[in-house]
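Researcher: I'd like a structural prediction for the single chain below. Treat it as a standalone chain; there are no partners to consider.
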Amino acid sequence: MFILKRQDVEISSIQHPQKDQQVPILQYQGQTFRLISVFNAAQEEEARAFWRDLTDNRGKACVLLEEPERYSVWGKVRLEQLQPEPLQSHPGEDIVPCMQACLLLLQAVYLDIEDLLGNRQVASFRRELQTTLQQNRFPDHEVTSLDQLLHIDPLGSAQWPAWRERHLNLLLLELYRLGKQHFGNTNFVERAMDALQDLPLKERGTFLNWLKKTAAGQLWQSTHH
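Model: Treating it as a single chain, here is the predicted structure.
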């Protein structure tokens, strides 16, 4: 919809209607937007891809705010309709294979960095990934630790974080950025995608079909042969 600079908008916060917390609000030309996701200064490509996916592919009214130290994506709301996003304590059937696949990719990249680059690089990877979970307010990030995500059995677990598609998309965008940053190339993609062979054929097909429709998928599939 729009790409804006900080001087173009007014940013404030209002009291959440059901929680004891403040909700960031952006106002532009009489329209109100709620914060969806935050990206750091090095994530311009990922921020633009996420914003474009929401606007072009999903028909959402969103703005991308460019600031010197970060990028952020905001979705249009009416203040009277501002309600918390319900959590999925029992994820829908379609999202479970996607969550399994995303965790397999996460764990594959993590092990690849650990095996090939060593402890110092893997510690940096963990710190940056944890920051992403916190900045983008991933549901359950405080109770589902990064350690759990890195060591959970994606094929055998019955307990899932209350994530939605946008969280999976963000996770894959960040995973791609970090992999490219640490390895200096995109060769890690091919190795990570091999981990999807552990998924049953039906579940793998569900994930690959979903991936084709996402901003993250454009990055992962363009470098996977």
